[in-house]
């Protein structure tokens, strides 16, 4: 290694000496290599630092401040040249100098050279171990961090408040709570538990490892709590779904920073409290507020717009982010693309994606667009994005194939979907998981190839989970295959006994077949087990405000107008050729009652409300918590044609874009 370096870089010494030969102030030509600055003060500092190493027998300690200076100013090339001179002089770095060299190489991301310097240093010190531990942690190698810390402990070198936070972060990243407790104990023995950084790191570790009780106990013992400790505990309770506790902590904080606010907003979003997230974000924007959103806040609040279908709110946040100069951030643009896609605006989603610089289009950005097109049933476009991703040199992961297979399924691209599924492990080294098998079962099931789907399930290398059997059951519902439906439903009754939806689907199939006794048995079973069918609800955003409708809802202030409008609407679409499909009313009642029941479905109420309260030509965007029923799907096609409106319905599975009497799904859903 040393001989090779001598031959490779023997020509670099004149370049270093040339720095010293420059007069002060420097001449017009740059006194340093291209990566250095010609700022006179830095020139002078570097010349002073370099002076001792050109003596006849320089001491190793002379190099330490040089590496520290070069690391601070990111002069990596000069750092490599300085290392080369150490080798040429036959010097062996001591632990102190090696620590500075490791830090320099780590700052440039060259962990291989950092590790070489570390491994070749005799009598390592705590400082040297701190340097390599910090390097491994910051560059995402938690396993190596823990290995280094274990060796450090074995050598009897004590960790300090610079060591433990990085080690605890690695424990958190790997969910190694047992290792974290050991580190906690070692910190106690050397009196570090009361240190701000160590204490906050311990709470963060326990939170991320799911031990919120331990985090709370530690927090309660702390005499002085810094903001980081409060923030970590708030994030932990939000992760556990303990919203009220997190709100209390946030309220008790005497001093909050941007992380505090962002933790609350992110927590609300992750727990489905979109309106609370948006309200807290609005509070941040109020005049006089000391805390202003940063890019992490924007990325955290945008999913709240997606959850509630609040497109206009999302657009306002987009405008705000533009105003404070955040649109150059690729994470913000990716989050915006995801928000627009989930709010039903693919054009704006694609525009945000296109705004990301090519080098900023990471795997998350590509996956976002693949999932966006898949959820809108645009399988061909999803495949196109995937192929462009490969051309850009980005390798797919499990999430990529989830979107790709879903897009193929919703678009009827059977052969393409099966090909990509087979290519996952053979070409891209991505092993299929249960969710990928679920997508392929759905792919085959939607095409009516139910026996092939059943055969695939029997050949799975792992046990089929609820998503797999659920996909088969849904396909049996579409193709009225009662025999296979019973098989899938019975498996689901065992795998997820509390999911009433499985009982309802089988009950519906029995009802369609006129098997009312079987229907009664299932409904009695549901009642005995205390389960209730999830009520259907839909909501629509008008002028920035969301309006919620339940099935047969009469609670809305405009309920009378909505129902009166629906009566006239039904007459119009019937004249145009609409025929109510009463098979979707699963009660043993008269045809007239069944037809009336259809008119009160929540998505129809939301659409009628939208038509009443918007100007002609405005796009209606409706979100439903369940799968849209076949009759509502057919009726909405007629409504879009008669009223000349584009109507976008986002249901549990995908988007349906109704326009001019047809749907983007091509009735393949």
How does this structure look, described?
The protein is mainly alpha-helical and 669 residues long. 63% of the residues lie in helices and 4% in strands. It is built from 35 helices and six strands. The protein has a six-stranded mixed sheet with strand order 2-1-3-4-5-6, covered by helices on one side. The longest helix is centred in the last third of the chain and has 17 residues, at 559-575. The two termini are 63 Å apart. Mean pLDDT is 87; it is low at 1-14 and 19-38.
Kindly summarize this structure in a few lines.
The protein is mainly alpha-helical.
What structural keywords apply?
single chain, mainly alpha, 6-stranded mixed beta sheet, 6 strands, 63% helix
The main sheet comes to:
6 strands, mixed
Spatial sequence of strands, sheet with the most strands:
2-1-3-4-5-6
Termini, distance in Å?
A: 63 Å
Q: Could you give the count of β-strands?
A: 6
Helix content: 55-70%
Mean of all residue-level pLDDT scores? 87
Q: What multimeric state do the chains show?
A: single chain
Tally of helical segments: 35
Shape: elongated
Structural class from helices and strands? mainly alpha
Measured by DSSP, the beta-strand proportion falls in under 5%
**Residue runs with pLDDT of under 50 for 5 or more positions:** 1-14, 19-38
């Amino acid at each position: 290694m040393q001989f090779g370096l001598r031959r490779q870089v023997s020509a670099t010494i004149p370049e270093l000496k040339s720095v010293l030969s420059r007069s002060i102030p420097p001449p017009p030509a740059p006194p340093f290599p291209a990566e250095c600055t010609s700022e006179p003060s830095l020139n002078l500092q570097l010349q002073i630092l370099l002076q001792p190493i050109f003596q006849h027998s320089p001491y190793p300690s002379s190099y330490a401040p040089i590496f520290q200076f070069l690391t601070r100013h990111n002069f990596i090339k000069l750092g490599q040249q300085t290392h080369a001179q150490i080798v040429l002089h036959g010097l062996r770095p001591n632990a102190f100098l090696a620590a500075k060299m490791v830090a320099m190489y780590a700052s440039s991301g060259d962990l291989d050279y950092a590790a070489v310097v570390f491994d070749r240093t005799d009598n390592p010190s705590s400082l040297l171990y701190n340097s390599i531990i910090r390097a491994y942690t910051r560059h995402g190698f938690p396993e190596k961090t823990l290995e280094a810390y274990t060796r450090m402990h074995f050598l009897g070198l004590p960790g300090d408040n610079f060591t433990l936070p990085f080690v605890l972060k690695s424990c958190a990243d790997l969910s190694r709570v047992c290792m974290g407790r050991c580190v906690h104990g070692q910190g106690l023995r050397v009196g570090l538990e009361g240190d701000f950084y160590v204490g906050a790191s311990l709470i963060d570790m326990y939170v991320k490892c799911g031990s919120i009780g331990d985090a709370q106990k530690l927090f309660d013992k702390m005499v002085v709590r810094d903001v980081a400790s409060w923030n970590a505990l708030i994030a932990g309770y939000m992760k556990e779904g303990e919203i009220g506790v997190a709100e209390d902590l946030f309220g008790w904080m005497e001093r909050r920073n941007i992380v505090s606010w962002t933790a609350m907003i992110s927590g609300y979003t992750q727990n489905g409290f979109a309106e609370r997230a948006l309200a807290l974000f609005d509070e941040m924007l109020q005049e006089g507020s000391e805390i202003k959103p940063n890019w992490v806040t924007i990325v955290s609040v945008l999913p709240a717009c997606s959850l509630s279908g609040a497109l206009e709110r999302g657009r306002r946040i987009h405008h705000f982010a533009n105003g404070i100069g955040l649109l150059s951030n690729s994470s913000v643009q990716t989050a915006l693309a995801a928000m627009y896609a989930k709010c039903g605006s693919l054009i704006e989603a694609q525009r945000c994606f296109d705004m990301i610089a090519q080098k900023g289009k990471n795997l998350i950005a590509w996956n976002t667009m693949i999932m966006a097109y898949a959820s809108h049933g645009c399988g061909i476009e999803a495949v196109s994005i995937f192929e462009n991703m490969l051309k850009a040199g980005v390798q797919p992961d499990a999430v990529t194939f989830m979107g790709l297979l879903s897009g193929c399924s919703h678009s009827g691209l059977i052969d393409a979907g099966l090909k990509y599924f087979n290519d996952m492990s053979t070409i891209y080294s991505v092993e299929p998981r249960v969710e990928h098998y679920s997508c392929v079962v759905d792919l085959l099931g939607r095409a009516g190839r139910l026996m092939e789907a059943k055969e695939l399930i029997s050949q799975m290398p792992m046990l089929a989970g609820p998503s797999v059997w659920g996909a088969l059951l849904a396909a049996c519902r579409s193709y009225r295959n009662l025999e296979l439906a019973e098989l899938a439903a019975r498996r689901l009754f065992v795998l997820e006994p509390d999911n009433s939806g499985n009982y309802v689907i089988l009950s519906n199939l029995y009802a369609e077949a006129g098997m009312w006794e079987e229907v009664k048995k299932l409904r009695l079973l549901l009642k005995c087990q205390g389960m209730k069918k999830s009520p259907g609800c839909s909501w629509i955003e008008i002028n920035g405000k969301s309006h919620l409708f339940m099935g047969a809802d009469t609670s809305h202030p405009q309920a009378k107008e909505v129902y009166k409008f629906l009566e006239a609407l039904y007459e119009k679409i019937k004249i145009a050729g609409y025929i109510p499909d009463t098979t979707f009313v699963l009660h043993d009642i008269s045809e007239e009652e069944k037809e009336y029941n259809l008119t009160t479905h929540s998505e129809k109420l939301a659409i009628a409300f939208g038509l009443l309260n918007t100007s002609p030509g405005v796009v209606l965007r409706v979100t439903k918590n369940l799968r849209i029923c076949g009759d509502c799907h057919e009726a909405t096609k007629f409504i879009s044609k008669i009223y000349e409106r584009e109507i976008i319905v986002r249901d549990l599975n995908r988007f349906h874009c109704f326009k001019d009497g047809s749907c983007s799904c091509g009735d393949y859903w």
